Amino acid sequence: MARPRPPGLIAVAAAAALVAWCLCGPASAAAAAGGEAGGGGAGPEGDVLIAFRETLRGPDGAPPGPLRAWGTPAVPCRGKASQWFGVSCHGNGSVQGLQLERLGLSGAAPDLGLLAALPGLRVLSLANNAIAGAFPNVSALAMLTMLYLSRNRFSGVVPDGTFHTMRGLRKLHLSSNELSGPIPSSITSPRLLELSLAHNQFNGPLPDFSQPELRYVDVSSNNLSGPIPEGLSRFNASMFSGNEYLCGKPLDTPCDKLASPSNMSTFMTIAVVLIVVGVILAAAGIATGVIGRRRRKRRRRRPGPGEPGGDQTPSNPKLHTAPAVNINRGSATAAASTAAAAGTSASGGGGGAAAKRGGRRDEHGRLVFVQESRKRFEIEDLLRASAEVLGSGNFGSSYKATLQERPAVVVKRFKDMNGVGREDFSEHMRRLGRLSHPNLLPVVAYLYKKDEKLLITDYITNGSLAHFLHGNRGSELDWGKRLRIIRGTARGLGHLYDELPMLTVPHGHLKSSNVLLDGDMEAVLSDYALVPVVTASAAAQVMVAYKAPECVAAAAAGKPSKKSDVWSLGILILEVLTGKFPANYLRQGRQDNADLAGWVSSVVSEERTGEVFDKDMAAAGAGAEDDMLKLLHVGLGCCDADVDQRWELKTAIARIEEIRVPDPTPTPAAAADAAEPSPSTTTTTNSGETRS
């Protein structure tokens, strides 16, 4: 049951917003409700947020710690800049989004109707908490475009009309809850781009999705049944796995052969009859065999005409048992020799030849696409494409291929990727293909060959962070850009930890040359999650996670820990802040790799912090020294040589998110865009789910 609204604050906030809307129009109302209130207090929108905060319960039964600072400063937004934890803002100073993730929220769902007094609210995320009970009243937030409630404990049926009012909904993520019943038909918003319902208990048929812009659907691991609608048949089959009674494309289960729950009773009846008949036939066969054996024994006891009977009784094994054994051995040897000569196994017939043909096809053949929505091309298209060599790394070489009438792609050739066999490699690539996050470079396709592997990814325009830091372009990276890059890197890494918990090091090779920068200078992580498929010796020699102190220690035998990626993140933070290249990455094997972290620690301990920061960044970030120091301490906390003392990744992410990103100098076009709220504004969250 939803909690009652606090009467005073909500009445004031709602009245103020309504009056402003009627007198001044939507844009002015949003600004009036936002932060720039001339009087005291938190302003109407601030009052709404504080009232909403009081309905939230953290681990100690009170509102979570980061939210207790709401109210300082007095208003949540100053222009587009957020001043309160978890709040994002429109350019006109109104609240645009709430990202209240990983806060340990528990208890029943809060009354989301309180947030209806925020006319500019477009994004709401309560993901990665422990909120339980009935699904919240999201229909009160008709203007939401993005809703993220994954990884909670919501249960029960979602009413069919829940999303009827939310006609502008573009992204809906409800995965990893305990929701049941049919998928509500109102979920098929005409503007829907992404839908994640995986790992719930939904049952019944899939609604008919016909949205032309729909680009991501995941309904895996539910109890759905019936045919997959034609509008969803273009997606990867893995997005429908774990639903025993779904059928049709892209699954391999034809609908006319599926035993659905409705006819299971008939199916079970037939099965029982067949089992009974089988048992009867088996018993009859056994009885016939026993009777026949007894008759043969009786015949053997009778000596033939003129034959002495003493040495031909069953007690003499030389006449009966030995020849039987010799015959069987001879047959087996002959069969094996025939199989070897024919190139097949004794039991396989033509199976061996088929396997060899399959092996040759994989050896020289086709690219396997793990992004089902991508337009296909073949290896021959890559060979014909205009190519530009991008470089050669520890694992192999890479080049940019420009295909006709398609975006450019990057082809990476890996030499030491024989850590697993073909089936395990393919399964791992499919797992990576299911990852979706704005700070992760998606794997598009792969080619498996015995001696080498090819991975196909998108081409990212601005190249790597290392190129900017160490290639005479450092002046282009001011403090704000560097902080945004680190924040995006941490979010991408956090998403890997969420989605690949079975891996000790979900990234394994985090360094500045594997942090790419897109056209907006946002971080995009590459070469992640490759440790499971790389040979152990190659991983120990060249992968960054294996250079963490716990791997270098003699007693560690080169094995990374769950915090080795955190150490890599810390080194990256120090590299970004200092502009110095961590020379330890040039070394191979187990050596002392604490160079950069040790130098920074010594300078800080001697209170010479001013010498640490890159001059290009410091000059462009005048007045932000306190925030730079906060990030520096995050980096040092992540680089602690003592694994037990080293920060947890979630702690590092939370501290990074608390650091205020300075406002960039807007261009005239950007200023014009900021004046009008857009439902497609890109947003990211701690949980690492897509926000665009």
Automatic annotation (TrEMBL):
Q: Which GO terms describe its molecular function?
A: ATP binding; protein kinase activity
Origin: domain of life: Eukaryota
Q: Where is the composition biased (Low complexity)?
A: 668-685
Any single Gene Ontology cellular-component annotation: membrane
> Which SUPFAM superfamilies does the protein's record reference?
L domain-like, Protein kinase-like (PK-like)
Q: Which organism is it from?
A: Oryza sativa subsp. indica (Rice)
Q: Where is this region: Disordered?
A: 293-323, 340-361, 659-692
Q: Where is the composition biased (Basic residues)?
A: 293-303
Q: Which UniProt keywords apply?
A: ATP-binding, Leucine-rich repeat, Membrane, Nucleotide-binding, Repeat, Signal, Transmembrane, Transmembrane helix
TM regions (residue ranges) = 267-292
Q: Which residues form the Protein kinase domain?
A: 384-692
The stretch of residues making up the signal peptide is 1-29
Q: What is this protein called?
A: Protein kinase domain-containing protein
State its location(s).
Membrane
